[in-house]
Amino acid sequence: MDPNRIIQALKGTIDPNLRIAAENELNQSYKIINFAPTLLQIIMSEQVEFPVRQAAAIYLKNMVSQYWQDREPCLGEVVFPFNVHENDRQQIREHIVESIIRSPESIRAQLTMCLRAIIKHDFPGRWTAIVDKLSMYLQSQNGGSWYGSLLALYQLVKTYEYRKAEEREPLLAAMQIFLPRIQQLISQLLADATIFSVLIQKQILKIFYALVQYSLPLQLINNTLMTQWMEILRAIIDRDVPAETLEVDEDDRPELAWWKCKKWALRIITRLFERYGSPGNVTKEYYEFADFFLKTYAMGIQQVLLKLMDQHRQQQYVTPRVLQQCLNYLNQGLSHSLTWKQMKPHMQTICQEVIFPLMCYKDEDEKLWQEDPYEYIRMKFNLYDDQALPATAAQGVLYKAARKRKEVLPQMMEFCHQILMDPSRDPRKKDGALHCIGALADLLLKKRMYREQMELMLQNYVFPLLNSPMGYLRARSCWVLHCFSPLRFHDELVLRNAVELVRQNLIDDKEMPVKVEAAMALQTLVSNQEQAKLYIRPHIRPVMQELLHVVKETENDDLTNVIQKMICEYNQEVAAIAVDMTQNLAEIFIRVLQSEEYEENEDKTVMALGILSTIDTILTVMEDHKEITQQLEGICLQVIGLVLQKPIIEFYEEILSLAFGLTCQTISPQMWQLLGVLYEVFQHDCFDYFTDMMPLLHNYVTVDTDMLLSNPKHLEIIYSMCKKVLTIDAGEDAECHAAKLLEVIILQCKGRGIDQCIPLFVEAVLERLMRGVKSSELRTMCLQVAIAALYYNPALLIHTLENMHFQHSPQPITAHFINQWMNDTEFFLGLHDRKMCIIGLSVLMELPIRPAVLDGVSAQIVPSILLLFLALKHLNASRLVNKPNLLANAGALDEDQNEEIPSDEDEVTENRNAMQQQSSIPTGPTAEEEEEEDDDEDNWDNDCFEGTPLEEYSTPLDYDNGEDEYQFFASALLRVQSTDAAWYQCLIASLSDDQKKQLQEIYSISQQKRSTAAKCQW
Question: Of 176, 243, 475, 771, which residue is least crowded by CB atoms under 10 Å?
């Protein structure tokens, strides 16, 4: 392989004018043996220009990602797909670790990704040698090889990070060698604060975290070894960061290696405490370790963290992530009396001087509010950003401490009250006080002492701030009303004022973050307070218009949820503005999709999904307003067209739901045109979205059957889709839906002249049945299509079966079908399927010309029908039973709900005692257990007798005026009795006395139903 030729091609990929030709050259060369090793040589050659080396590294990474794994030919193909040749793989495995050690950082990142892919596919099977190679470099006295080999080891550990414990054996065997060495290495480097040393320490900590964070290998890390590691971690957390780091800009300090080292040490310790070291909250294998951890390490570590918190309190710099991890550790410590007793003397100080300042409005908040209010909103509502903020961790500690430790809540409420009472206090502290109170709202509403004061608190301290000159206080006050929206108001005027003030903030405020908080508060007040709903009703048009404006401006997904809920609350009032709202939402959707940053910004996708969901809600609410739905159709089709045109696959489910909503009452010519478009989509993206298409396809069949049958193309499209799903492996769920749709067509079109379709439909399902089916649901669904065809036209089905032949089936298909049906009658579940089976068996026993196979199963037919009737009887009875009142056991709102635990107890002691007591109780069911067993029986009954998911796709059999299975069966059996006595005797000869009694009951019920129907006609 000529390296110069590859170098020139790689150089061409960097030049826009030469890129296409260069990429073509590489695409013609990459399959040639020795191409990949040549790339690695180019990457490591210092004679080659650096941009070319980078391009080679990226190309190699892509090659390894796509072509390293052995791949088999696709179904129906003979040629094996390209894989990197084994000789090339061997050369790369031989040199990749050295390349990582020697390469500069930007190239090293690509090579480590290559290594991860290689390890994933080749370790341990083809490449146990990596262990020896890494061990050699880590044992070397040449420190220059340590960092790169640690990066390589990290890839090995990351590959197994989330594997089950039993799948980690190869890693644990390797770590028997590596763990002592990296522990020795980090111990000797602890005293060295140079950047080289600290980077190596950080990488060792990352390796240890990946090793233990999902599963703690106790066979590898015993208590002695863990104690040594805990001392290392404690030393790293406790040591001072070099003073010169304070000269670095504060925004850049979190990226410094010294602080990152602390962050990783804290992540390990917090993870160990939360997942393995918290007695009562761990799985059985960690019971002993948890007790050991709590008694041996937890307090010593907590002492160091309290020191760090105190440094932060005294205005010494601590990075946000380190502070967050400290708070997370303390949160876990609140559950245990041992750590709580150590924390308790400091708790008031922590709450008031660490947590409280974190919950106040800060300079960086003000800067962002003023410079970019839309980014401020995004940051406040983005869950992923928020998780990293110390304020979130602080709020978690405050809430848990107030919930579990009785001294905390009264102290904190008194502290916040004093701040709110003082008119001269810093407004930012008032924001913090309201933030704390709102964060504790859930607890305060459970305690009568606080609950009864909340109205007064809102009136005195929150309402005035809704008109504050400071936007952040108006926003915070709206948020507090949001938090306390479930409060039971005793004074109607206070509630009216709350609603009016929030409405004004939404409509009239000039600051967008205030409008967003006001929107949230207004919706929760309306949802939780019946009176609030009445107050807003006269203002619903301007409120909804303003909500749309705010959504358009901010593209905030939470607000689309607000709009959806308001639409549901005011469905009648929304009718007047539904078209304008949908038009606005469609315009926002189109703008979001066409924005330049759409592809890169995940928030845009979430926002667009929210808008589609909101439009769908409007369609659902307007379902009974035919003229409005007709106006909405054009707008929705514009949105559907845009999604299909791009195409944007992640929105298919939502646009199919829109199309369903537009076809529930009538189907316009435009919606019939959409069927053809969807067929094209189906051809490309096929099975993944067939089940999502099903409700819409069901509408095409059942809502306008005349139009369906007027154009043969319509039925041909639907059949082709079902046939394709049943022919190629689409998964049994999609196949069940396809078979169901064919059954719906047959039943919907009975007597409508689709005889030519029956052989095609039956062949499609029986061919699938003959290929072997795993689930009883698909088996019965395929049978059900043929049963529906039997009901449609018995002679046509029998003729079709007699002329149908499949490979690998020695017996005629008629016999196979009937035998399979008789074997599977117990698997017909739900109302429709059992009814269809009864009607089918009734037709079968009345056939004028009986297939020979029926003689062999004659004794099974009537008993099978009787069992199906019994199941239907249970199903109908279960639907009449009153559902239990789920609210009956809910505690009265006026009673205090106390979750506090004494200082000398653990949060989990009660649960553990209960478990211990249970284990000492003699065997034998208690009354409670018997009650639970009864519940299980009820659940079994419900599972057995409730309808199947596919029953939502109704057929004429399911309508009130549909075929009655009692009358159908009774009439059929009586006709057989009068016309063919010998056959009748074959059918009933094996019936027991109980079965004969049941048969008489069915005759009686049939007669009653016939009499009732006759009276109704009169």
Answer: 243
CB 703 within 8 A of CB 664: yes
Name every residue whose Cβ is closer than 8 Å to that of residue 164 and which is 6 or more positions away in sequence: 215
Which tokens belong to 332?
């876990």
Q: Give yes or no for a contact between 542 and 522, defined as CB atoms under 8 angstroms apart.
A: no
Locate 776 and state its tokens. 């009883």
Q: Which residue's entry shows tokens 């009820």?
A: 938
Range in 255-269, 370-384, 496-510, 965-979 with the lowest mean pLDDT: 370-384
User: The tokens of 82 are what?
Assistant: 């390209």
Q: What are the residues whose beta carbons fall under 8 Å from the beta carbon of 537, sequence distance 6 or more?
A: 570, 573
Taking a C-beta distance cutoff of 8 angstroms, is the pair 592, 586 a contact?
Answer: no
Residue 553 burial by Cβ neighbours in a 10 Å radius (0-12, 13-18, 19+): middle
Task: State the Cα–Cα distance between residues 93 and 104, nearest whole angstrom.
Answer: 19
Question: How do residues 593-648 score in pLDDT, each as one tens digit?
Answer: 887 766 666 778 888 999 999 999 999 999 888 899 999 999 999 999 999 988 88
The answer to whether residues 40 and 50 touch, using CB atoms and an 8 Å cutoff, is no
804 pLDDT tier (thresholds 50, 70, 90): confident
Tell me the residue type at 641.
Answer: G
**Residue where the block lists tokens 């005026």:** 961
**Radius of gyration (Cα) for the chain, nearest Å?**
36
Q: Give the SS3 label for residue 190.
A: coil
Summarised one tens digit per residue, pLDDT across range 953-967 is: 999 999 988 899 999
d(CA 584, CA 566): 16
Structural contact between residues 355 and 397, judged by C-beta atoms closer than 8 angstroms: yes
Which CA distances in Å does 932 have to 623, 925, 926, 929? 42, 10, 10, 5
Residue 872, helix vs strand vs coil? helix
Q: Would you place residue 255 in the very low, low, confident or very high pLDDT band (cuts 50, 70, 90)? A: very high
Compute the distance between CA of residue 584 and CA of residue 590 in angstroms, rounded to an integer: 10
User: Is residue 935's pLDDT more than 60?
Assistant: no
Task: Label residue 953 exposed, middle or buried (CB < 10 Å: 0-12, 13-18, 19+).
Answer: buried
Quick one: angle between helices 223-238 and 195-212, nearest 10?
A: 140
**Chain centroid offset of residue 919 CA:** 36
Q: Do you find a cis peptide bond into 124, omega within 30 degrees of 0?
A: yes
Closest CA to 870 of 786, 757, 994: 994
Residue pair 327/394 in contact (Cβ under 8 Å)? The answer is yes
pLDDT given for residue 881 in this prediction: 62
**For residues 217 and 75, which has the higher predicted lDDT (pLDDT)?**
217
Closest CA to 624 of 560, 584, 574: 574
Q: pLDDT of 822-839, one tens digit each?
A: 999 999 998 999 999 999
